[in-house]
Amino acid sequence: MAKYTIKRLLYSVLILFFVMFIIYILMYNMPMGYVETKARELASRPGATKTYTEWLADLNAQYGMDKGVVGGYFTWLKSALTGNWGDSWVWTVPVTQEFHDTVWYSFALGLISFIFEIIIAIPLGITAAKKQYSFTDYFTTVVAMICISMPTFFIATLLKYIFSVKLGWFDLSGMQGRNYMNLSDFGKFLDVAKHFVLPSITLIIISIGGLMRYTRTNMLEVLNSDYIRTARAKGVPEKKVINYHAFRNTLIPLVTTLGGSLPGLFAGALITETLFAIRGIGFASFASMTRGDIPFIMFYLAFISILTLLGNLISDLLYAVVDPRVRLS
Fold it and tell me: Where do runs of H (alpha helix) occur along the chain?
């Protein structure tokens, strides 16, 4: 296991090297207007000690854009490896600080939806497979297709209309209520948690459909296998056949899907966070992309790449846990 893990980590580092090179190429080929606009902004600030030309040269040198693609990439990579990702042009703070201030809101939102997605989708998928062609199966299929088909903005708008406009249970958007500053620490926590309810429900609704259908399909495939028929013929209780023999063999494809969900826990839900004004990493990255914040964009893309490689590695390692027939060698 240790040898396999080290080998995969080395492969991941190599892949990450080329992925970050592609990220740099994308940044390098962005319209120069973004850099020029930033240089002009810095030069026009009160008390500025550098001219527009000097700021433009400094920004190009900072990201190696004056050394060509290859030379510039290694200049940027050296700074990135030492933790110097530069200052965000939009948020006017170091990129890592803005990331730290926003990512945990996205993580909390993603973790809540991820847990409920598993709790709801997997049992319903298994139940639908056990009762194939029954009312339960058809009902679950219809619900799953509705969840898959409805766009995020429609679900968010519908939830806002029902629970905010009509019932008045939640605020339309934001992360804090009007009396937030007058509350105790625990009251502030509950206030923020209340503002996360509708965004969490939105993410749960749009995510359970695919996992539900995926679980049902794989469970049906396993239930029609020869060893399941043999177990039933031997008189093994149906509950043990489903929960032990069948479900355990359904875990391998599920592990692949759930392992790939790791980036989503930290990547943020761009549309959902924007619609509900949740200042998470998805909201911050959207604002940075639309306003040409090159330092933050590069950091965000590199971070997502690392999470994707890590999620694939975790999935491969979990194969040997859920299925002893798999040998990592």
Answer: 2-28, 33-43, 52-62, 68-81, 95-130, 135-149, 152-159, 185-195, 197-223, 226-233, 238-240, 247-259, 262-267, 270-276, 281-290, 294-322
Q: Give the confidence band of 1 by pLDDT, cuts at 50, 70, 90.
A: low
Which pLDDT score, from 0 to 100, does residue 230 have? Answer: 85
| pLDDT higher than 70, residue 39 | yes
Q: What is the mean pLDDT of residues 301-310?
A: 86
DSSP string computed for 302-320: HHHHHHHHHHHHHHHHHHH
Instruction: Tell me the two tokens of residue 57.
Output: 């040269």
The two structure tokens encoding residue 149: 């088909």
Of 254, 253, 229, 257, whose CA–CA distance to 241 is shortest? 229
| Integer angstrom CA distances of residue 196 from 69, 276, 282 | 43, 9, 15
Interatomic CA distance for residues 266 and 269, integer angstroms: 9
Q: Is 87 helix (H, G, I), strand (E, B) or coil?
A: strand
Confidence of residue 32 (pLDDT cuts 50, 70, 90): low
DSSP state of 164: I
Q: Which of 305, 299, 303 is nearest to 63 (CA)?
A: 299
From residue 161, give the alpha-carbon distance in Å to each of 49, 58, 279, 308: 52, 49, 21, 35
Residue with tokens 């991941």: 12
